[in-house]
Specification:
15 strands, three-stranded antiparallel sheet, signal, eight-stranded parallel beta barrel, about 425 residues, about 25% helix, membrane, alpha/beta, glycoprotein
Length: about 425
């Protein structure tokens, strides 16, 4: 693995080994490999254990062997230990051609929609510790500053706090003289009323220092045996993203109706309908849980040793489920036609920030972003923009004036994780 020297190197960065993957790059709305070929993501949501699935070398070896057979080239990990040694697992996944996309937040530091929203030093410190831990791995594909922070149609008042996090994470990389700037993005719930305002807001204007480098959408619209590109609404998702200036991909997808899943949406995502706009998809999820989205399972947990009442084993020998077999067949049959880096010219220029619309998009594009340490006031939470003296505007200039289904599924993924993670986290913390 290629070691990247950074002034603020963390202990986890020090190991070196044979280079298997060069870092991905971004130009315009596309990811590219170091050889100039376009990168299309065939990813798996991989949160095998509640706190960090990238610490167990043997388990990573077992899982990576099956992921290679599946045809995966990316994993998404929602929670990691910023103090853990991830060298072995990152190397294992690098060796099979897999990039890791890591969420920077955790249960205690995510940006809350209803807290009210806030962004402070404690959160930034936690984010940057995780960033430092992973930044030296060449197969770190990117980082998310949040996952489904906004979960309802009138939650747009939290959007500036997401953008403030992007700003400060990027500023940290600049301050610490990172050799490469890690792509930084956001993963959104698919809320019809906020389309395409949220994705456009996070990438609007011409100041890259406050904008996402990529945008992920958690979408489960392609559901049922009779759906298709138009019935599912994928045609509208594609239309809304046609002129998007940075890469956009499905950061979660894979409706579990019918069962086993048929993954027919992959033919659209990697086919002529969407391949020119979208950069791939991450399938939810690797491990079988009570929500029945698993590609594999490790069997049932021993009730005598299970932490927090979790009924599913969190490790062991992975056994492919029918969904695994179907997805392997689908992925092996889709070969998106990309463009080479040296022949690609991005025609998607800066996009305008969405105008404030009462009851739909309650963000004034001329309002400055929250400052570090700021909490939303009651007026903002009710949909009335508030002055933020001394902050930066959405374009980065100095300020001169003072979907319910996805939300429920997010709770399964990020909090419940098979019915036991909240209890498991509490129990684990009690043992420390």
């Amino acid at each position: 693995m290629k070691a990247i020297a950074i002034a603020a190197a963390a202990a986890g960065w020090l190991a070196t080994s044979t280079l298997a993957l060069e870092p991905l790059s971004i130009k315009g709305s596309k990811f590219f490999h170091a050889d100039g070929s376009q990168y299309f993501m065939k990813g798996i949501a991989y949160q095998r254990s509640p706190l960090d699935p990238l610490l167990d070398k043997r388990q990573c070896e077992l899982d990576a062997k099956l992921m290679k057979d599946l045809g995966a080239n990316a994993i998404r990990v929602y929670h990691v230990d910023p103090a853990g040694d991830h060298t072995d697992c990152m190397k294992i996944f690098e060796d099979i051609g897999v990039y890791a996309f890591i969420d920077l937040d955790d249960f205690a530091t995510y940006i809350e929609q209803d807290g009210p929203p806030h962004w402070n030093d404690t959160q930034l410190d936690a984010y940057t510790k995780t960033l430092d831990n992973f930044a030296g791995f060449s197969n770190l594909g990117g980082v998310f500053v949040g996952n489904e922070i906004i979960t309802r149609s009138n939650g747009s008042f939290a959007a500036p706090y997401i953008k403030a996090a992007i700003r400060d994470v990027k500023a940290y990389m600049e301050k610490k003289n990172y050799e490469r700037k890690i792509p930084t993005g956001y993963s959104a719930a698919d809320i019809a009323e906020l389309r395409p305002n949220l994705q456009n807001y996070l990438a609007c204007g011409d100041d890259a220092s406050v904008n996402v480098d990529f945008f992920g959408l958690n979408a489960y619209e392609w559901c049922g045996e009779e759906t298709d590109y138009h019935i599912s609404g994928y045609d509208m998702l594609n239309k809304n993203a046609t002129d998007y200036p940075v890469p956009i991909f499905f950061s979660e997808t894979g409706c579990n109706v019918p069962t086993p899943r048929d993954f027919k949406d992959q033919f659209a995502i990697f086919g002529p309908e969407m391949q020119d706009v979208w950069s791939g998809a991450i399938i939810y999820e690797w491990i079988q849980e009570d929500n029945n989205y698993g590609l594999i399972d490790y069997g049932r947990a021993d009730p005598k040793t299970a932490v927090g009442g979790d009924s599913w084993a969190r490790g062991g020998t992975p056994t492919p489920l029918p969904d695994f077999t179907v997805l392997r067949s689908v992925w092996s049959s889709v070969s998106p036609t990309g463009v080479s880096l040296n022949k690609y010219t991005s025609t998607n220029g800066p996009i305008d920030c969405p105008a404030s619309t009462s009851g739909i998009w309650n963000v004034d594009p001329s309002s400055p972003l929250p400052t570090l340490g700021q909490t939303a006031v009651a007026a903002e939470a009710s949909g009335t923009p508030a002055d933020r003296a001394g902050a930066t505007t959405t374009s980065g200039a100095a300020a001169t004036t003072s979907s319910g289904t996805n939300a429920a599924r997010r709770n399964d993924a990020m909090v419940q994780l098979g019915g036991g993670v909240v209890a498991a986290v509490v129990a684990a913390a009690a043992l420390l």
